[in-house]
Amino acid sequence: MLIVIGNLQQSFDNIGRETFRLYPWSILAVILYFPLGVYLGIPGIMKEYQKDGKWKFSWYKNIFITLPLIYFSFFWFIPTSYPIPDLMVGSHSTFKLAMLASGIVFMYSITKENSG
Question: What's the predicted TM-score (pTM) here?
């Protein structure tokens, strides 16, 4: 999965350099890390699958953790988010890391609730 994401990101970077249009390609390069976070969250779902009870989706965890992480991943592309702190200028790996973390938190928000 890392190889596929790396190849896709490289091709998006090449397309952006050749066409000088960074807008859709840089956003797609960041979005690629959400499925990787979902993949890394699968062991948590497998652990929950073995428990008894009803499935529950934690809306609070998604609203208060996942959505801010997704916003943090894309604030560079949102014009109303300026001025950008000097700490984050040029560090595009933080955007990818936030998207990866949002995928993991999304998967860990799916739990089983005890019915007893």
Answer: 0.78
